[in-house]
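Appendix B.2, paired examples.
Example (i):
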Amino acid sequence: GNVPPGVDPEAFSWFQAVDADRSGYISAKELKQALVNSNWSTFNDETCLLMINMFDKTRSGRIDMYGFSALLHFIQQWKNLFQQYDRDQSGSISFVELQQAFSQMGYNLSPQFSQLLLARYAQRSSNPSIQLDRFIQICMQLQSTTDAFREKDTALVGNVRLSYEDFLTMVVTRMM
């Protein structure tokens, strides 16, 4: 077929390969089957769903060719950033690299918080590290919750007073 205007030809051919059911749309399941980390593991379900939801303009749980093209561009930007922070070129982000990444992104986060993220998102091993999919997920969630926090922290003092329901509302509207 012909490449639609505004769609990268490479994205077009990849879209056709990924659209397994030939519906003209990519679901989170199809996306998961198409994306791999540097260790050849598939992207996790949570990250795929986050990205589908980000580019799903119709709230149907799937993206069309234009959304897919934009998503591939989005992933490439994150991959470039990931490779920049993967200083030892291991294909994953270590604790030290994660700390440096947060600092360079402007986040003042404690080593304990980075350890918590590693415990939650890294594959279990003696030297835990973060793959690209989890890096994207962490950064998207960090940005989203930071934006929500800043909406409440109008004086930019670094702390806010919230009711429990306000907190839950922030989480549900930003994370799910």
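Example (ii):
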Amino acid sequence: RLKEHPRAWSPILEQPSWTDDLTVCQLSGIGYGTNRVYQVDGTSSEGHTLEDGWLRFREDECYLYGVFNGYDGSRVSKFVTQRLTAELLLGQLTLSHGDADVRKVLLQAFDVVERSFFESIDDSLAVKANLMSQLPEGVPHSQLPQQYQKLLEKLNKVEQEIAGGTTAIVALILNSKLYIANL
């Protein structure tokens, strides 16, 4: 079940977030539906765990909307939903910004969020590189001798931890102009 907070709405996170203090955009009528699988008798069930995220916030006369299509888990889409909001709404955008400034802020925000995510999995990436360096080169994992099985199990576990990603599209309305950024 989605939890609606008095001032902000985050359908992904059931727990309080720093975004709870931001004003929700009342001008958009964004709906929400999970992946449903319908049976012949009309009953339905969730097809898979929701991996996506989205946001809609207003700060003064700045309106921000985002959709994040996660894959292989929701870790990245949740991360981007929280961090991108912070990068764009905590003083980076002002009504005095022109087109070039807004473009620069959007590009920087995407870059900072991407770098922040990689920093958050940096240790796991180092572990993966170390494990990979211990495997013989050019031999498919399925053909490795039994002595490498424990190493492969560790490698698979680390790869599952860092797997996933998200697409991102953001719409920003500032000074009655619409800006779109996507990745």
